[in-house]
Write a structure and sequence with these properties.
The protein contains eight helices and eleven strands. With about 240 residues, the chain is of the alpha/beta class. About 35% of the residues are buried.
Length: about 240
């Protein structure tokens, strides 16, 4: 009976928690060989970032979405929204000099500590609503839910002039969304910024939080190089 009540309580918590999303779009695209920031490059008729935003509203039209953009790109974004007639109900927040500062700014824009927040890369436009939904459901139970995939290829460690094989089954490639209990991740982002804190999971872990992983998707690629655009185009067309 206790297990039944626990399941009911978990389901009720999942249904009642407010869901937020922070989409971080501050990349310059230095590896894209393009003067246009990678989040604004057109992909199948829309800028990459618009595909990403659409994915979250496809998951839920009621989600509270915060878009983080560099100050000097706010006018560019406004012009793109006018060009593509893109008028999703979202809040725009100016980012900081680093991803850490940008996410912290986004979290500060959420006035409550109650709820769940998914933090996602603006240049991961192929995230599915199933993955977004799974991240919220698991974070409601475990306070954190980070998308990850298994390695497909063999890996080796290089040390000076020697290399050593490593058991790839012990490793995961980390993706976004990375979804957390709001109070937990807000408190985590009060720690001192360091270069080694490359994503939200590393920030939360440094603050003493336990990180729960769940199965992501190999199609949830991060667009970083020109080859990624070709792959993303093919996946979208498929």
């Amino acid at each position: 009976m206790n297990d039944e009540f626990r399941i009911i309580n978990i389901e009720f918590r999942i249904q009642t928690l407010k869901e937020y999303a922070i989409i971080v779009a501050g990349g310059k695209g230095t590896r894209m060989n393009n003067t246009v920031p990678k989040q604004f490059i057109e992909l199948s008729g829309l800028p990459v970032l618009m595909h990403t935003i659409n994915a979250f509203f496809s998951y839920s039209p009621n989600i509270d979405l915060i878009l983080i953009l560099p100050n000097d790109e706010l006018e560019v974004w406004a012009a793109l929204c006018k060009k593509y007639n893109f008028n999703k109900p979202l809040q725009i927040v100016a980012g900081g000099e680093t991803r850490f500062q940008s996410v912290r700014n986004g979290l500060a824009a959420i006035e409550t500590n109650d709820g769940l927040v998914a933090i996602h890369d603006g240049v991961r436009p192929l995230v599915s609503k199933d993955i977004i939904g799974a991240s919220f459901r698991l974070a409601a139970v475990h306070q954190s839910a980070v998308a990850a995939v298994r390695l497909k290829e063999s890996i080796r460690i290089t040390e000076r002039n020697a290399t050593t094989s490593v058991d790839r089954s012990s490793y995961r490639l980390i993706q976004t969304p990375q979804t957390f209990d709001l109070k937990l991740i807000k408190d985590a982002y009060k720690i001192k910024e360091e270069a080694s804190l490359t994503d939200d999971a590393s920030v939360a872990e440094r603050a003493g939080c336990k990180i729960s992983l769940f199965e992501g998707s190999y199609s949830n690629i991060k667009i970083t190089t020109p080859e990624d655009l070709v792959i993303a185009e093919a996946l979208l067309n498929n």
